[in-house]
Amino acid sequence: MVKVKGKCDAVIDLILIIDSSGSISFDDFQKGKEVLIDAISRLNIDVKKAGVALINYASNVSLFTQIGVFEFDKTELLTHIAALSHIRTNTATGDTLALARKYCEVRC
């Protein structure tokens, strides 16, 4: 169990993770992007205190985030997801999960 220190008053912290390594086919990567776009499009988020992060990973881990933004810019996030590249290298799942955890620790 992970213990959180202090008080967290964020309404929502959402971390989207997509694997763009070589073990994922181009078609499956495109489907993953479509799922993320569909999910974000359907969300009705109260913009205050929302934190959204997107992690695209293969050998390297790339973080796109809107930490501390008081207006959730859905259009910017959807545009960024649509433009994600299929990197097609090795898979750094451990580094990705460590980054996601660090994001959560910074937020709360």
Please describe what this structure looks like.
This protein has one domain: 3-Layer(aba) Sandwich (Rossmann fold). Helix content is 38%, strand content 19%. It is built from three helices and three strands; from the N terminus they run E-H-E-E-H-H. The chain has helices at residues 26-42, 74-82, 93-107, and strands at residues 12-19, 50-57, 61-65. It has a three-stranded mixed β-sheet with strand order 1-2-3, sandwiched between helices. Helix 1 (26-42) runs antiparallel to helix 2. The chain starts with 11 loop residues before the first strand and ends with a helix.
List strands and helices in order, with pairings:
Layout: E1 12-19, H1 26-42, E2 50-57, E3 61-65, H2 74-82, H3 93-107
Parallel strand pairs: 1-2
Antiparallel strand pairs: 2-3
Protein name: VWFA domain-containing protein
Domain VWFA: 13-99
InterPro entries: ECM_Assembly_Org, VWF_A, vWFA_dom_sf
Terminal Cα separation, in Å?
A: 16 Å
Give, in order, the helices and strands.
EHEEHH
Annotated CATH homologous superfamily: von Willebrand factor, type A domain
Structural class, from secondary structure content?
Answer: alpha+beta
Q: Care to count the β-strands?
A: 3
Number of domains: 1
Main sheet: strand order: 1-2-3
Sheet bearing the most strands, described?
3 strands, mixed
- Radius of gyration over C-alpha positions, nearest whole angstrom: 14 Å
- The helix fraction, in percent, is 25-40%
Q: What's the pLDDT, averaged over the residues?
A: 79
